[in-house]
Amino acid sequence: MMVKVRSPASATVINAISTGFGSAFGIQLYVTADVSVLDEVTSKDIECHSKSLDNPKMDTSLMDLCVKKVYEELCKYSDFNLKNIVVNVETKSDIPPGSGLSSSSAATNSVVYATLLTLLEKANMTRDDISFTDADIVNMAIDASLEIGVTATGAYDDASASFYGGWKITDNYGRKILHDYTVDYEKVLIYIPNKSLYTAQSDVKAMKTLAPLVEMAFENAVNKNIEKALTLNGFLYCAALGIDSKLAIDALKLGAKAAGLSGTGSAFTILLSNDADSKKIISELSEYSGRFVLTKPDDEGSVVIR
Question: What are the beta bridge partners of residue 19?
Fold first, then answer.
């Protein structure tokens, strides 16, 4: 018995660290989680075996916590009677960790959702038997990320863009979607340098000093001006974090409609017009070490793949 769930990465429009209000949109890079209950018995109520197929040495404590949280939630229902079970979790990712493309949000959404469906199926139950909504899945994934410490704000903007797809504008601390848009650009170019940066290690105080300026970028997002919002946000956070923004300037000079840092880095998101010559632009930017990935917005969000 196995359930497979795929969740998209997301690209930042507004980083929420400075104000608590953020914005992100899903992109077609994915984390897939396979969750199954093994034919084994354990002395514990539940035991979790997690691994990343891309990075077998990766710390899996976040995945383990997601599984345990789902199990504890289901134990509140009298019809759920699974005990002494061993759950196996395997993840596969297109998203480099520490790149600012919401790898942890995509992973936690996938693991929570797939675990929920797997355990319900094993207990001969369905989602109709429980009062656990899609919003509850997102919130549980965020709670796990906060508990482990991989996010500074709970990343509700990233988590909701990953789970539901589309372009979300959010109150991260209130965990509310304020606006729900789609991105008109079909060509989204992601630049991933060779160096990773992790949100937990970022200079939060420096980012918070920029709050009044980030609010201006956020107003552009609310008014659906994704180009100004994404670009201004990117320059502001590059300044706060001491990250060179020359790539964004070069991309704009080559005709990109927007270019800016995603999350706290290290990736940059570049929006190209639908008729742009992406190969030429990538070639012109080839002096930057790292890789370029041409992708599209994802409007589907987390999906179950059988």
Answer: none
Using DSSP, state whether 119 is helix, strand or coil. helix
- pLDDT (tens digit per residue) in 3-36: 999 999 999 999 999 999 999 999 999 999 999 9
Region 130-158 average pLDDT: 89
Distance from first CA to last CA of the chain, Å, rounded? Answer: 11
pLDDT of residue 198: 55
Residue 285 near residue 191 (C-beta atoms within 8 A): yes
Do the Cβ atoms of 31 and 103 come closer than 8 Å? yes
Q: Are 28 and 13 in contact (CB under 8 A)?
A: no
**Bridge partner list, 52:** 91
DSSP helix/strand/coil, 227: helix
In sequence order, which residues have a C-beta less than 8 Å from that of residue 245 and are 6 or more positions away? Answer: 234, 235, 238, 239, 261
CA-atom Rg of the chain in angstroms: 19
Residues in the chain: 306
Find tokens 């959404």 and name the residue: 109
pLDDT, tens digit (0-9, with 9 covering 90-100), for 74-87: 999 999 999 999 99
